[in-house]
Amino acid sequence: MDRPLLSxxxxxxxxxxxxxxxxxxxxxxxxGENTPRSLLAGLAxxxxxxxxxxxxxxxxxxxIRSPGPSSHGFGEGESNG
Length: 81
What we know:
Mean pLDDT: 83
Number of helices: 2
Order of helices and strands: HH
Radius of gyration: 22 Å
Largest sheet: none
Number of strands: 0
Shape: elongated
Low-confidence stretches: none
Distance between the termini: 55 Å
């Protein structure tokens, strides 16, 4: 098996989501809630964090793209004939 199970980006998103869920669950437990409510709060925060960090990390990848040939002044346009 030469390739990894998950890509680096997916691993990073899931790791940050897991840390977010653990922090939310821990803070909920420290606030005096019982264990099931703390687990539900942590799972809900982790699920929301996956969506958030997936979009956050993906937005950087789509913002950095090589410009097409039309942006270099080559091709047909008003000044190129």
